[in-house]
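ok trying this again, last paste got cut off
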Amino acid sequence: MTTKKITKVSGGEDSPQKPTFVPTAEAKAQAGKLRKNGVILWVLAVVAEIIAMVILFRKDPEIPLSTGSRVMLIIILLVDLILLIAGSMLWKKANRFDPASKQDALSFFFQNQMGVVAAVIAFLPVVILAFIKKEYLVGAIAALFLVGGGVASADFKPPSKEEYAKQSNYVNELMGVDHVYWTKSGTKYHLYEDCQYLKSDRTTEIFEGGTVSDAYAHNSKIKPDMNSLCSACEKRAAKEKGWTDEQLQEMKDKATNAVQNAAQPPQTEQKAESEN
């Protein structure tokens, strides 16, 4: 039995296999709160942008800004950048609680990359106006902030309902229940409280009682893919069941296929559509 501090996470309950992922009411509420706060920060970023544009709009293109005005503009743009990134961090965290579905590619893209859209809105007009007004230094800095803010706001490994369902099903195959453990800064989730990787002296607290989706929602360092399951826990579960490597792969494929099949319309519907 581990001597580490165990923190139970509310909302994670024993759950049967499901072909699709449905966030709990608590998770949806948390996601809604995070998105609301993220949008507020983005609006404040646009306000900072408007202030910068007002200063630039009044400038005579033939007369350079004073050093003080130029410094003030750069500070305003920096505030704009900070607000943008802070809002994007909240938005990405919200998507961990309530991910989009890959079945609607357009909706999936915009839900996960809204921070990039916000970056364009918050900086591109300033970049254009700065160059029109011949404030090339300010324009270059705004362009740099646009690129940096866009990269920081992008989600290069976005979560999805399908990925959550796939991994939940796989954990169910291994353990009979979607119940996992994780640490605050670890990059893996675990199936056993006494896993060898949780015994490290660096681990002072173990979170438990949640599902795979809870692990993703509470630790952004865990990437939403199959490789985030602790390999030692995976092998231990397979050994306890007496599975060979081939059987383990079959279970993994079964979990994946259950989700993929759920996303496909019934054959009868497909046939009817083709006939029409």
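PB: full thing came through this time. DSSP finds ten helices and three strands in the chain.
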